[in-house]
Amino acid sequence: MAVTLRKIQNYAEYIPLRIILFFILLLPVSFAQKIGDKLASFFYYFIPYRKKHVIKELTLSFPEKSQKDIQTIAKNVYKTFFGMIVDVVFFSKMPDEKIKNMMTYDKTIIANAFAKGRGVVLMPAHMGSWEWTALSFSKDYPINITVTKQKNELFDKMLNESRMNKGYTNIYKIYKTPMMFRDCLNALKLNQSVSILSDQDAGRNGMFVPFFGRPASMPRGAALLALKAQCPIISVFGIRQKDGHMNMEIHDIPLPNTGNKEEDIRIINTTYSHQLEDVVRRHPEQWFWFHRKWKTQQMVRG
């Protein structure tokens, strides 16, 4: 009975979504983006999902900014998120060449990393249009992205088929099993890249590193994978430009060898955290502040 109700609920959520997407895709991209901006403002003022949380964390992270500036950044955080949604919706309509040309980046670090033949671990973040960053990267290099299975199986299938059809390979995050780690290692052995979003709160099993002057729990997975494979590890941050294009900032993260695995993971995670903080300080409106980045730290402290 419970399974039947779950299926009914899945279709009740999925069918209206497909109808909405059908009509949105009839619009020009530029017009859809304008609608996205309007919806962002509407949600900011009338359906303020985690608005208080976003403003609180921005205030703590940027004490030098006025409340007016904080509120402007918060409003633009909503616009960035809705812009990312529009990007994802229109993936299926965009030819590969256009997708590739929408992202610019210095390929030297990437090329040198792949030249070592051991694969590459990518550490992106929820910056700008993170889906766009991975999609554009896939036009130059093979990429496997770790994804979380959505509760709605129909939506999960639609989203992940869209990704795979445009060049991704999905690796599901299956917790408490070695399958995800094994699949990631296999991809690295083929000299492919594995992308692991690493900027979310990782709970009590994460590692606390400084972020905006406060300890934040960070996932160990990307660092542990790179150390196991002894492959290059690179942070990648996609920054949306005013003209709609994306610029991907790429930073090498040296692979430490202190003889202590926990210390090596700490060094990698701290380096990544510093790199992420630097780019967020320059583009605060483009990071996904809806995340409860300091949730575990606040629980431990409380």
UniProtKB/TrEMBL annotation:
Keywords: Acyltransferase, Cell inner membrane, Cell membrane, Membrane, Transferase
GO CC terms, sorted: plasma membrane
Recorded superkingdom: Bacteria
Keyword Transferase belongs to the record: yes
CDD domains, alphabetized: LPLAT_LABLAT-like
Cellular localisation: Cell inner membrane
GO molecular function: acyltransferase activity
Stored Pfam families: Lip_A_acyltrans (PF03279)
Record has Membrane as a keyword: yes
One Gene Ontology term from the biological process aspect of the record: glycolipid biosynthetic process
Name of the protein: Lipid A biosynthesis acyltransferase
Organism: Endomicrobium proavitum
Taxonomic lineage from the root: Bacteria, Pseudomonadati, Elusimicrobiota, Endomicrobiia, Endomicrobiales
Gene that encodes the chain: lpxL
